[in-house]
Amino acid sequence: MSLVPAEALPVPCLMPLPVIGDAASGYTVAVEPGQLPFAVARVYWTYGTPADVLRGHHAHRTLEQLLVAVKGRLDVTLENSAGEQQKFTLERPDVGLYLPGLYWRTIRFHEQAVLLCLVSQPYSEASYIRDYAAFRDLAKAPDTL
């Protein structure tokens, strides 16, 4: 298995989403095929999470996601397998956070926040890395993916 240079790997980034509408009638965000860096295979949302609860605490091997705060505020902390962290705040329904595989995430929900996730793969427990130490070990042995 050949290694992909780190600089060639996709990185998390904020993505503006197309908006239709105006202040008089309201707004709609509509994403069509080809507008995301992956084809959407699954959609889910998380709601009713008490304020200041931390969720996530996992990474995915190859699965890609777009995270959107359709309501409220979410503070997202990402960490790659080398331990480098990035922090993002999501609080607009017309901006998503693109998240490639191999980023450990924790998500702090604020009052009445709703998280929408567009996902590149159907659900599979095998795609998850739930052990933080095993995730960090990937930096030492990337061929274990």
Give an overview in words.
4% of the residues lie in helices and 44% in strands. With 145 residues, it is mostly beta strands. The strands form 3 sheets. A 5-stranded antiparallel β-sheet has the order 1-9-6-11-4, with no helix packed on it. Strands 8-7-10-5-12 form a 5-stranded antiparallel β-sheet. It has a two-stranded antiparallel sheet with strand order 2-3. Strand 2 and strand 3 form a beta hairpin. The longest helix is centred in the last third of the chain and has 6 residues, at 132-137. The radius of gyration is 16 Å and the shape is globular. The N and C termini lie close together (10 Å).
Strand order of the largest sheet: 1-9-6-11-4
User: Count of helices?
Assistant: 1
What's the helix-strand series? EEEEEEEEEEEEH
**Class by SSE composition:** mainly beta
What value does the average pLDDT take? Answer: 87
Q: Care to count the β-strands?
A: 12
What separation lies between the terminal Cα atoms? 10 Å
**Poorly predicted ranges (pLDDT <50, ≥5 residues)?**
1-6
Range of helix content: under 10%
Give descriptors for this structure.
single chain, mainly beta, 1 helix
List the helices and strands and how they pair.
Layout: E1 13-16, E2 19-22, E3 26-29, E4 42-46, E5 54-60, E6 65-71, E7 74-80, E8 85-90, E9 95-99, E10 103-109, E11 114-119, E12 128-129, H1 132-137
Antiparallel strand pairs: 1-9, 2-3, 4-11, 5-10, 5-12, 6-9, 6-11, 7-8, 7-10
Condensed summary:
The chain has 145 residues and is mainly beta. The chain is built from 1 helix and 12 strands, in the order ββββββββββββα. Strands 1-9-6-11-4 form a 5-stranded antiparallel beta sheet, with no helix packed on it. Strands 8-7-10-5-12 form a 5-stranded antiparallel beta sheet.
